[in-house]
Structures are given as structure tokens and as C-alpha cells.
Design goal:
The protein is of the alpha+beta class and about 400 residues long. It has 14 helices and 20 strands. The chain has a 5-stranded mixed sheet, with helices on both faces. Strands 9-12-16-20-17 form a 5-stranded antiparallel sheet. It has a 4-stranded antiparallel sheet with strand order 3-6-4-5, sandwiched between helices. Bound molecules: adenosine-5'-triphosphate and magnesium ion. The site of magnesium ion (MG) has 3 residues, from strand 14.
Length: about 400
């Protein structure tokens, strides 16, 4: 059962439409339904304390407390947390005045990454190519109010080089169960060109994340993070999504923490998962999570975006071919920006519309089948990348 009214969710469960901000009503709903476990999906209600409210009401809830969710709520606080616990991350300076910010920009050997401190729906980060661009991003936050309060404090960060990996770890506060390492494709254009998006596709596993990198990540990042939070009286119960940069020496650095699953990576992870998800979530909630790795098959997701995305996005385009696509071996089409048209058909609702996902014994087969499913689907202005997973399959 779910609380978001979407044509995709309607195919797998019953909708009980509610806003994520309606905490009291959600507590009542969980009680009425006698929910075994409530999973709080998005970051905003976690940051706003929905998991705490549920827990206080005696409901089993998978998701961190507001205190633990600070790791995502404030990039400045998360940098201080990493410094306090010796967790490797890029050098940074936190500023809240334009004067301090402009002075700090030039102290970086290459133009720094500029990050709004608070939640900005994935739009608060500028990977500046020039110092002037960094200055402009600072002005947008501190003078232009581009992100409101979320941009009233800004983190300037040294730019890291390497390959990014998204690493998801389920925890009961103490033990960690890891998922396969994922890679996504952030740019709109093939060959990683054009503006950043919320992600145009993803695949698991990421070959760069070798056993050695896994071990370093656990020892230097995951364990100190979970222990650090525990020692500060805010144990992490939920899924910690660590955004990593793996450098040339195969050393992992934290780019960011998220305190939830995130797309597009979660789609191939879920589709390929070979562990019992419900039992794992319940074990995490009850503090009995078995330490180890959740195994999974290779899988990939190709995002179909609406016309104009990411600068703008078109709505109301009729989608055809979903049933045919879902017939293809190993394929599941996840809905992101879809809605029901008046006649009951499915149409686009803007942004990233669908995640066309496939799983198979090897990644090349998963990609092949995902792209066969993409060929079956049509809507006006449909945009997608043809090179998802190439980095993992080209030798
Ligand atoms: N220090 C850095 N060096 C290089 N690239 C970076 C750095 N920090 C951020 N980036 C790039 O910017 C992207 C977004 O940064 P970050 O993950 O901190 O922001 P976010 O808005 O919280 O993202 P998300 O919506 O995925 O949670 C990263 O995935 C990475 O591509
Ligand atoms: Mg984030």
C-alpha cells in the first residue's frame, strides 16, 4: 500500500492518497491498516520528523530520525560530522556572507563546487568550471535567494576527480547490510555532455567498485558513519545512500549522504535484488539486521524524459507501448512522471517520465532487453540516452 496516487503504483498496490506532510493523518492510516512496517521514502518528511512521530506512536517505521536525517538536511553539518569522525571527503569552506564566499572561492586551486546547504530537490549544486561561475552560483544563493533558506548557507568544496558510485547500506543502527554498488548517468547527453539532470539511467553492479574498494569504503566510511551517529545518540535506522567518488588510487571519498533510496539507482537495485526486502526492512526496524551483503543480479534502467527536460518539461503527452514493454524478458517499467488522462490512459506529467528497467544474468543482456523495451514505448518529445552502462560493458 502506498500514499501516492500514481498510475505506476496503482499496478502494484492500493493507493491511499495523502500528502507526505500530513503526519497525524499518516499515523492514523498506519494504525488503521495495521501496517507491519512503514517505509518513509522521501527526504523532506524524514527531515521533518515523520519517522520519530511514527515511532512515538508505536508504529514500526523504516527511516531515520530527524536528528540522523541531518546528514542530508544540511551539507554544512554533514561536512562537520565527517571532519569530527575522520571520514574522507573533499576540503571545504562553509560561508553565509557573500563577502566571505567570494574571498574563499579564490583559495581553491581549481574552481570549487558550490552547494546550497539545505534541501534543494537536487538543484542546489553547481560544479563550476571557472571561478566566475562559482562566484555567480554564490551570488544566486546568498544575494538572489535562489534556494530560499536552503541557500542562506553555502558549502564551497574542492572538486574531486574520478568515478562516482552510489552505495546503499541498510542499517538497524548498528549492523550494516550492503547492496550492490550502482552508477548513474547525470548528464542529459550521450558521452556525459550537456546539463546535469536527476539521472538519465543507472546500472548495477559498478565494476570500479572492486572488493578492495568495498573494504576501504566499509572501514573508512560506512562503519565510522554508523558508529559516529550512534555515539552522538542518533543511531541510523533506514537506508544510508553514500555518494562516493573513487579516485585514481582507488580510494573512496564521500561526495554526499542521502538518508533514503534514490532514483534512478534504486530501480535496478530493487529489480535485481535476490534478498527478501520486506524481511530485511523489518529486521532493520527491530534491531536484528544480519550483517553482510544483500545479493542481486545485474540490472539497468534507462530513463525516458519529457520534451525540454531538464531546462523545462512538457506535460500531457500520451504514452503508448507500456504493456508491450513490460512483456519483454526481465523488464519492469517504473513510473516517475506519469498521470492518468481523462479517458484513463497514461500520459506524461513532466520531467523524468519512466524508468525502463531490466535484469538478467549479465549486464549486457539486461541493457539489451531494457533498450528493446524502450523501442516499444512512444510519447511525443521522448528523450533518452543510448549509452547507459557503456562504461561497465566496453572493454
Ligand atoms: N566535490 C565534488 N567534486 C566533484 N563533483 C562533485 C562534488 N560535489 C558534487 N559533485 C557533483 O555534483 C553532483 C551533485 O552533488 P551532491 O550529490 O552533493 O548534491 P545533491 O543535490 O544532494 O544530489 P542528490 O539530488 O543526488 O542528492 C554529484 O553527484 C557530483 O556529480
Ligand atoms: Mg543529496
Amino acid at each position: 500500500m502506498c500514499i501516492r496516487d500514481s498510475p505506476g503504483l496503482a499496478t502494484v498496490g492500493t493507493n491511499h492518497p495523502h500528502g507526505v506532510g500530513e503526519h497525524a493523518a499518516l499515523v492514523e492510516l498506519a494504525k488503521t491498516l495495521s501496517a507491519d512496517v512503514v517505509v518513509v521514502g522521501p527526504e523532506q518528511p524524514l527531515v521533518d520528523g515523520l519517522a520519530d512521530t511514527m515511532r512515538e506512536a508505536g508504529i514500526d517505521v523504516f527511516g531515520p530520525s530527524a536528528a540522523a536525517a541531518r546528514l542530508e538536511a544540511s551539507k554544512a553539518e554533514s561536512k562537520s560530522f565527517m571532519a569530527a569522525h575522520g571520514i574522507p571527503t573533499a576540503r571545504h569552506v562553509t560561508v553565509s556572507s557573500l563577502e566571505d564566499g567570494l574571498a574563499a572561492v579564490r583559495t581553491f586551486a581549481v574552481p570549487p563546487v558550490v552547494k546550497a546547504d539545505g534541501l534543494a530537490a537536487g538543484k542546489g549544486v553547481t560544479v563550476a568550471q571557472t571561478y566566475d561561475e562559482a562566484d555567480a552560483a554564490l551570488r544566486d544563493c546568498l544575494e538572489g535567494g535562489a534556494f530560499g533558506d536552503a541557500g542562506a548557507t553555502v558549502v564551497l568544496e574542492q572538486r574531486l576527480e574520478g568515478q562516482e558510485v552510489s552505495f546503499f547500506v541498510i542499517s538497524d543502527g548498528t549492523n550494516a547490510a550492503t547492496m550492490l554498488p550502482a552508477q548513474d548517468h547525470k548528464r542529459i547527453g550521450e558521452g556525459d555532455t550537456g546539463p546535469n539532470t536527476g539521472g538519465m539511467g543507472a546500472y548495477v553492479p559498478a565494476p570500479i567498485f572492486t572488493e578492495a574498494v568495498h573494504d576501504k569504503t566499509m572501514a573508512r566510511i560506512v562503519r565510522p558513519t554508523l558508529e559516529g551517529l550512534r555515539s552522538e545518540g542518533r543511531p541510523f535506522v533506514g537506508v544510508l545512500f553514500v555518494g562516493l567518488m573513487i579516485d585514481e588510487a582507488s580510494d573512496p571519498w564521500v561526495i554526499e549522504y542521502n538518508v533514503r533510496f534514490g532514483d534512478p539507482e534504486a530501480q535496478p537495485l530493487m529489480l535485481g535484488l535476490q534478498a527478501a526486502l520486506g524481511e530485511t526492512l523489518q529486521a532493520a526496524v527491530s534491531g536484528n539486521l544480519r550483517e553482510g551483503r544483500l545479493t542481486g543480479a545485474p540490472a539497468a534502467s534507462v530513463v525516458l524524459a519529457s520534451a525540454g527536460y531538464p531546462a523545462s518539461s512538457h506535460k500531457g503527452d500520451r504514452i503508448s507501448g507500456l504493456a508491450d514493454a513490460n512483456e519483454i524478458r526481465g523488464v519492469t517499467v517504473f513510473h516517475a512522471g506519469t498521470r492518468r488522462a481523462a479517458d484513463g490512459d497514461c500520459e506524461t506529467a513532466g520531467g523524468r517520465v519512466l524508468g525502463v528497467c531490466a535484469t538478467a544474468g549479465v549486464l549486457t543482456d539486461a541493457l539489451h532487453n531494457a533498450y528493446a523495451a524502450v523501442e516499444a514505448i512512444r510519447f511525443d518529445g521522448m528523450q533518452f540516452r543510448r549509452d547507459i552502462g557503456r562504461r561497465a560493458t566496453v572493454v
